[in-house]
Every structure is written in C-alpha cells, then in structure tokens.
Amino acid sequence: MNLNKKVFIGFLFFIIIPLFVLGTAVYTVSQQLIEKKYGDLTEVTLQAISRNIYYMFKEANYFSDFWMVKDSIQGIYRTIDEVRPNEEAPSSYDLNTFDTLLRGSILTYSPIQSVVIYNNAGKSFSAGRTSGSALPWKTLSSSTAFEQIKELNGSPMWIGPSEYKELGASRGEFYQARMVKDFWTMDNLGYMLLKFKFNELDQIFKSFNTNEDSSKRYLLVNKSGLIFYDNKQHLEGANVLQLLQGKLDLQQSNRSFQANFQNERSLVSLYHLNLNQMGVQDWSVVSITSWKYVAGEIETIMKLVAGITFVCLFFALVYNLVFVRRIVQLILRMLYSMKKVERGDLTTRMEESGKDETTALARGFNSLVERVEDLLEEVKRQQDRKNKAELMLLQAQIKPHFLFNTLESINVLAIQNQGKKVSQMVYRLGNLLRIGMENREEISLKQELDHLKSYLEIQEFRFEDQFHYEIESDPEILDYSILKLTLQPLVENALQHGFEPIDYMGVISIKVLDEGERIGLYVSDNGIGISHEKLAKFHYKTELETPFHEILDANVNEERRGLGVSNVADRIRIQYGQHYGIFICSMEGHGTTMKIVIPKTKGASL
C-alpha cells in the first residue's frame, strides 16, 4: 500500500475516528445523564402532583361519604317513590323539600356542580347550581361504567371528562358515581351521581410551571390512553398512545424516556397515580417536556464543543494534507528515485526546492548518487582493464599450447623426410599465425572458419586416415563477429581426448546456425565421450564459479585437462557476459557435442 495512503488511514483511524467516537460517547453519556437526572426530578414533581390530586379526591370523597349517610339524604331515597309533582306529599317530604335538603347539604361543597339521586326503580331527583337536565336513569344504567359502579358496592367511582361519552361531561368536569346503602340495614337504596368541577386541578399543575410559556405539558390519562385533562387544553379527548405511537406503554412502571412529541424532541415521563382506593381507576399522569428546555445551556455547550472539535479536526486534516503529505511525498519520490538507481539509472536526480531539511535531504541524495556514479565509472574502467589483461593472458595460454602441438607434428614429418607435407603444414601454420597475431580480439565467422580449416588440414597430416571433418554454416551470418581462436581449441580437444583411444574412423562435425538473437556453434565428434561422473562436475549457472580446467579430473596430466576448452569458456563469459558460454552434451562411448552460444554482433572493422 502507498505510504501516503497508510499515513492518511493512520490519521483517520488513530485521530479522527477516536475523536469522533469519543465525542459521540461523551455526547451520548451526557444525554443519558441529563435524561436520568431530569427524569428523577420530574418523578419527584409528579409525586408531589399525585399527592395534591390524592388530597383533592380524598376531600371530595370525604364530603360525599359524610352526607351520604345522613338521615336527610337517606330519607330522600326512602320517600322518593311517594312524591308526586305538584301534589302534596303523603309524608313530610316534597320536591321543594328535596331541593332544599340537597342545596343545604351536598351542594354546599363548592366543587360539586350538580347531584342526581336514583332509587332502585329508576326514579330520580336532581339539583344543581345551574339549570340543566339530569342524566336519565336509562342512560346511566346502560352505560359501560354501570357494572363497575355496582361491583364497587358503595365505594365511589370517579369518571373523567369524555371518559364515557354517554355521560357528556365538559372540560374539567368529573363524575363521582356510587351505590347508596341503607345506613342501618346495608340494603341498596339506589345510586348517586355527583358532577364536580375541579378548578383546583389547574392550580395544581400550574404551580409546577415556573412561567406561562413553560415547555412542560401535563396530561391526565386513563388506562386506555384517553387524555381527559391537558393543562394546555389542546389535547383533551385525544389518545396519548397514538401521539407517542410505539414509545409509550401504560402497563409499564414509572419511567422517563426521550421521544418525538408533535415533531419535537421531548422528554416523556410516566407516573401512575395509584388512587384506586379513592375510586380513581388506573389513572396516570404523563409529563412531556421539550428537550431544549431539559438540556438548556448544556445542549448549547455540547454543540459548541462539537463545533470546536470539528473545526480542530478540519485544521488537523489540512495539516495532514499540507505538511505531512509533503513529507510523505518527498519520501515516495526518494523511494521512486532509489528504485530507478537500483535499475541502473544513475542520471536520476531529485528536485531541490525550499530551505528546510527536506531540501537538504534531496541534496544529499543527489550528491550520493553522483558519488556512486563516479565510483561505478571507476570500477567499470578498472574492470575493463582487468578483462583485457585476462584476455591477453588466456590468448598467451592458447598460442604456446597450439604451437607446441603443431611444431611437434612438423618435426615428425621432417624426420620422415616428407618435405612436401612439411611445406604444406608450414604454409597453413603461417595462415594460422597471421590471424592469431592480429591485434583485433574479434574476427568474422568466415575468418574463424578459414582459420579452423587450416588447423584441421594440419591435423590431417598428424592423424592421417584416422578422422575426417565436415563444416556447415549459414552464409547470412558469416559476417558476424566472434572471438578469434574459439573453435580451434574445441576441435583440438576432440582430437586429443576423443579419438586417441578409438580404433575406428573419427568424424568431427562443425555447424554454425542462426538462432534468432544468438548464434549457435556446434562441435560434435564420435569419440569415446565423457563419463557421467565428469559431466556431473560441470555446473551450468549464470555465473561460472569454477573454471573448467579445475573441474576436470586432477589425476590427468596438464596437457589432457582440456585447458583449451576452459580458456574458450572463460573468454566468452568475460567478453559477452554471463548468459553466453559453452554447453557440453556427451554419452560415454557415443561421442560428445559442445555448443558455443554467442550474441549477434559486428565489429567496427567487419
């Protein structure tokens, strides 16, 4: 991966992401702490509201309980069947008396707006502070609340506004319904329906709001979620479960949580009144407070801190892109330049701009490359001188070696008084020496083959009727150059080491073939070959680690070590490089083939 990417990813994973995670965690924890602390505070407030509501209903229950057992009220139930409108009552009670009794007793409690008395036969009598028709017995008895009133068996049952639509209560009007018992016999005398208007309820909730524009909203709901009281008077008759769909469960215990209420983030607190002993059936208070009001200045501070953090991250990113990236780019450019130097391009230089340490680093790199280039040039010059000296030494080894063998052959012919053959051999030897004494290291393939023919003709005088030779060459490649005295030592090696022990006609075949970008020269014989043990000692590597003349068997004398072959192999490697040289293929008893591989080159004088 690119170093620039690594630095950016490291900056991202070790600076930006940890800061973002830390900020998110701090923000989340702070939100949870605010929610918990304010939720606890709201629960204390709702407990206080619950106590006030408890005392409000307790007082109302106490007042209705007090008058319900009075003889005057119970007398109404006993005599209501005997009273006829506009007729004189058979007893001491009439309708005016009933009205007077109710106004002087039950209606003396200011929250009570009206009272309706029903006997078991369904006959009713009502009185109230304002004119209006009383709730008919049929409507009450058919109401879904009537069975609960009977089950309570004299205990009061409170009904909130709109909780039972058939009862038709207005805002702030609560019904108390109950069965009335005979004080002495506990027989059922009938039913009583009281309508209350609790102005005190507004005061209770208002006392916990610090101002008129408070973001707090208090809802009084029943177990089905019906809102029958809203301190802001907007949501009465609605269902809180629909307003907080999926968020609020009235079956759960008291708790606080965050939710969107009317498209505004809010803190919602649920508190169960637990006033069932007072006749209040599973009512709860739901407090809804705007989160802006809850968080207050802390939310503003958190946003400010988040803004500052993002600004810092932005400048850190700019710093990374402007300064760190510049240094990384310098390192990458230097790495790229070093790779070019490794590939041999010593002309590579880095741009020197600026006045800081990076410029000094680039200048030092350029100076180092220049120094390396000078040293390599010096080494190359020394290596060239060394190669020329080695070539001269190798040629000096080849010339005495060949001259010794040739002069020995001429001497034998002279002793045998074969003057004509001596003349021919001297003529051919002159041709050989003429080529060998030329100052050029390389000659054309044609000259090398002419030189080889002269040599083979000389050797035919030495090994008369023991071998013959054949030369094949591609005419198109005869103008390419080759190190002089390359083929002759290989042929000499075949004659001396391949044919001396045989008792059959020897054959030497020389082929020169075009092999694409290279030239292959093959010298084959049908001599005794080379054993597998000796072949295993030859290492075909890109670099010849051991000279051939050290690989051959040490027990053989110096003349038979194949000094000419080793010299040719070393010369080719020195002149043309490690990818060129001699390859040997041989089978004992079947002969040997030596292949010389050289590049296609032409000398300046060819």
From TrEMBL:
Instruction: Quote the PROSITE patterns the UniProt record gives.
Output: HAMP
This protein's major location comes to membrane
InterPro entries associated with the record? Bact_2-comp_sensor_kinase, dCache_1, HAMP_dom, HATPase_C_sf, HATPase_dom, Sig_transdc_His_kin-like_C, Sig_transdc_His_kin_internal
Q: Where is the HAMP domain?
A: 325-377
Alphabetical UniProt keywords: Cell membrane, Coiled coil, Kinase, Membrane, Phosphoprotein, Transferase, Transmembrane, Transmembrane helix, Two-component regulatory system
EC class name: transferase
Q: Which reaction does it catalyse?
A: ATP + protein L-histidine = ADP + protein N-phospho-L-histidine
How does this protein lie in the membrane?
Multi-pass membrane protein
EC numbers on record: 2.7.13.3
Pfam families noted in UniProt:
dCache_1, HAMP, HATPase_c, His_kinase
Compartmental location: Cell membrane
- List residues traversing the bilayer: 7-27, 304-324
Coiled-coil features, chain-numbered ranges: 362-399
Q: What is this protein called?
A: histidine kinase
